[in-house]
Design goal:
heterodimer; A: alpha+beta; Cytochrome Bc1 Complex, Chain D, domain 2; SH3 type barrels; 3 domains; 5-stranded antiparallel beta sheet; two-stranded antiparallel sheet; 10 helices; about 35% helix; globular; B: 5-stranded antiparallel beta sheet
Amino acid sequence: MRLVVVMVAIVVVVPLLVVPLLVVPLNAQHGRYLNESKNPAIGNPESISAGAKLYTTSCAGCHGPDGSGGRGPNLANRALWHPLSDEAIFNVIRNGVPGADMPPTKLPDGETWNLVAFIHSLTGPASENNVPGNVEAGAQIFWGSKAGCSNCHAIGGRGARMAPDLSSIGVRPLAAIRESILQPSKDLSFAGKEAVTVTLNSGASIKGIARNRSNYSLQVIDSKGVLHMLSAADIKEMTISEKSLMPEDYAKRLSREELRDLLAFLARQTARTQEAR
Amino acid sequence: MRTLLFCYAFCSLLSAQVQYQDIVKGPAENWLTYAGNYQGWRYSPLKQITVENAKLLAPKWVYHVPNARGLRSSPIVYKGVLYITNSNSVYAVDARSGRLIWQYVDTRAKEQSVNRGAAILEEAVYFTTTDNYLTALDRQTGAFLFSRKFADEEKGISSTSAPLAVKDKIIVGSAGGDSGMRGFVAALSAKTGEEIWRTHTVPSKGEKGSETWAGGIEWGGGATWLSGTFDPESATLYWTTGNPWPDFTGVPRKGDNLYTCSLIALDLDTGKMKWYFQFTPHDTHDWDAQSWPVLIDMEWKGQMRKVVLHANRNGFFYVLDRTTGEFLRANQLIDKVTWASGIDSKGRPILIPGKDPTPAGNWVCPSVKGATNWMGQSYNPGTGLLYVLTLEQCGMYTSSSQEPIPMKNFPGGGATEEGGQVILRAIDPKTGKRAWEYPMTGAGRMWTGIVSTASGVVFSGDDDGHLVALNANTGKHLWHFNMGELLTASPVTYEIDGKQYVAIASGSAVFSFGLFEPAESMPLPKIKVN
């Protein structure tokens, strides 16, 4: 069932997102790299833009139009689980992966570095890109009832507290934010996402998100944002959901424009808004 | 009925928050300010751990703070959650199990430095960053509430102290005094971080006090890098101030250099200075006054008097009237003081000539670390004693004729120290005499604090990295635990479900101790996955 949902999400949503992602003028990026390359293409908007065009024609077929993977690995989330240096990416593009489907290329150095710059940009903070969309309209979607984001999430102290605080969500890569909206159950590795329902020996029940869990204790934030710290000795039974508590229907619930606007709003959330006097 | 229902909902909401009155009451199961109570006592009424059973203390949990070195944070504890800070970060830990609940790391502050702790008020936990943002976080979830900049690092100012939450205000200080800056204490709105008032510790040119600066007033220092104390009855803040800059040469700044190396009393609502007392006029040894102003009421010449106790880095222990700032008495805090023969009747040091730093070096006692420093002291109303970590150490002070340039980390000379011994001393504030002392082995590094309890136990770090428990009446050793690292923070004590804990940060982790209990086998939890 879960697989079906994921596939539906990819089939339905990804094509809608290709254009917005690729037209983003991507500025200087600082992803989770082993080290930052000194090559001038990295972080250069023109190089990134040129790399994006190359990517669309040469790479998107396997790695997905937005870098989210297909026959080839996911490049947008790659740095989260397998950080590579820019030089290593360059070498993979140049030499291919022997024994796999990734072929070598004969691109000149400059164009190869443009591609590297684009791939690098996929993992940079969304806040450093001028993510397109109507920010004000995105805010209304966030705070409004159609998306209902603020029923669980907060920004700047406004909204509910059970789900992860989004006051600084703009530091995440755009692709990661988008995936969290469209496929919230795809990656539960981020802290504070595991949905639990606990029945206590007293008969009381608590439903929420486990901030921490061991064989001996459990720390849960419930839907009202109240923290419960429990000893395993007090717990009669616990149910852990493989799925996020977040609704999985945003691909249907929101139009393409609404999703774009919401992303534009979220990309600009960087917490420290009061600048130096 | 409806009113009752509303009251029930509203009152339970309030009861789940930290109210100003809760802080006024002082610690019990919770520990709500850096020093436990507003008066700076580091004293707890908890009694489960006693002189008799302290030998049964055992570690309950350890939480390793990510990337931490030399932690100086004193924990806050509220409703079973312990909050500890590191540079630009806060960690909320289950105070019973040591498990992390949430963390907040400000990745935008460029500098890493020490951080001495957080404050808590209503639903928010407050801390400051090295680039002078006051940040408020939801105490239960860590959700970001607001962050507001209150000072400019381009003017040499940083922030390391634990904020103090009082009524609707968060009081913050300023660090950076050894590189040139102008110190201040500021009150910010607890709701928004907006500035309510700011009082500088060095006057502007032409202001009262500026006549005590022949030069250098613009970058005169007077940092306020330690939290202060507060008297709820008179709504007065007591804050100590740092040394003048450049530290080791007074040539560019002849005069007393007010209000550096002082204790200042400020009106909570306006920030107006009610009085000041300068311990070390025209300091040239980096003996800032960053040690706790401890507020007690005690008998003085047959009458009860509201006083402030202050063990100063310059080697003397002072008692002042905290309503007027009147000097009452000073005693020598350590055995060897070579720069002043005593304190005169007005509270001014009686200088011994020739003790300023020189280009070739001048050997003076106490050392640059001071006779004591910022480590938390403890006043115990049960024993009537003040417990202070002291350092018997001398040092070489050199001066430089180099032109001081602000914010270039040039203190106008330098200082080294040699040998020395840390001694925990119990002082009777009524006489200034020592009731007992506990000498320690170690390298004379002395950066940990003290907490004492109603059951007559004193907890302190020693100079060798042990947490020790002593008899508060006699100083007799009761228990110790090797923490494996130099201790640079102060202990606290709290209670959950009727069990008392003692927590302290080592260099890189927080430890919590309690009385030994045999482990009970726990069945594996019944977990369903859907």
